[in-house]
């Protein structure tokens, strides 16, 4: 596979510039029919989660395709599902550049992007021409609030986005856990989360009636949670009958990267150093949820074994972003194969 050679080129560029070049390259590979040169085909491994049928349990996490400009090209890399966004009601530039930093010694990235995106209407326009969802692919749309919306009015932004993306999404992910929008993580606190989930579930019911179609809602949570917070969030997920939880977002911790170049940059840390922390949160959520709410595991997946560990901890599906940057498309098939092997080993034999 040619990705290790391409990565040398990308890593010689500024991280955000490399992102733009890389996404253009993925589009080119899809258009010219050479996507097969980037990775081997991924064997089908259908799984049903949140009432949706996934081609395989390995997905792309939000953040790589914020505006839904590359859905079909990314799907050609073998992902079982694609999550785009985070999208906000209005376009916003995000935080000042530079805002994306590699720590290659630890296969890590720090970002403080700040929900940079072109707004919900542009995202809908972009995905209107994509074939992935129309042909049965699962397309998640990750929604957030604008940076200048007061935290006490955050629900208004989430409700507006939910209303606009509902008909286009296979599921909607509610991002209250990015560390790069001021005060956003306050929405994870008991009273604020209770009110937000109540509003979202009521809107979901109205929209299901209007559109004649039920679109699942999943909550994306942070890895930097105390055990009591995890228990409280799990209780609210069950109480409000949420359809899924995505665990986890990036971390504010710098454990594992201390003293390295870029380690002190502000923002959320992703990649290999996040693996143990995010997997621990998955395990605690799984125990607290008792199987009532499915978990999408994300954070630190850099190889097939990491993906299988998420499933073993209690996740039903996995996602990655940073692993895709460091490993390329081959990670999709490797993760899918590892999960399939684990399921085979742990499926009870019939007498």
UniProtKB/TrEMBL annotation:
Described function: Catalyzes the conversion of dihydroorotate to orotate with quinone as electron acceptor.
Protein's recorded name: Dihydroorotate dehydrogenase (quinone)
The family this protein is said to belong to: Belongs to the dihydroorotate dehydrogenase family. Type 2 subfamily.
GO annotations of cellular component type: cytoplasm; plasma membrane
Organism annotation: Candidatus Accumulibacter meliphilus
InterPro entries: Aldolase_TIM, DHO_dehydrogenase, Dihydroorotate_DH_1_2, Dihydroorotate_DH_2, Dihydroorotate_DH_cat, Dihydroorotate_DH_CS
Known pathway: Pyrimidine metabolism; UMP biosynthesis via de novo pathway; orotate from (S)-dihydroorotate (quinone route): step 1/1
Top enzyme class: oxidoreductase
GO MF annotations in UniProt: dihydroorotate dehydrogenase (quinone) activity
Taxonomic placement: Bacteria, Pseudomonadati, Pseudomonadota, Betaproteobacteria, Candidatus Accumulibacter
GO BP: any one term: 'de novo' UMP biosynthetic process
